[in-house]
Specification:
2 helices, 7 strands
Length: 139
Amino acid sequence: MKCQISFTTDLFATERPSEASHLQLGEDLAAWLVQAASGGEFVFGKPYKAEWGWAVDAQSGTEKFIVGCGIMNESFDDTQADWLITVEMVRRWKFLGAKDSKLRSELCDLIQNVLRDKPHIREIRWTDHVGHFAPKNLA
């Protein structure tokens, strides 16, 4: 099951924040993703700060998702930075309900296609790690 996609690009801000927080980085990625992926089956909310980066709510029909965006810790201040996007289903009950769905897979495919179509984005790779941005990799 695809959960996280990482990629390398020079399109988004990478300057280490003056504060001891990485929450400022990823907002431009989240806003760009909403604009690039809108107009189809999924409705996207506005980007918001989350405990582990920036996030966007996405919905199709009755299914809801959280799309998280952040920079990989070792990429601060790099011209070509590594970024991570996660896709998680919102479930009413943490231990009840499916962890995956056809729509979740379609959302993952949409994100991959949006990234693939941008010339400055490279090294796109999916992982099946679960959780908010694989904490070992983010600040």
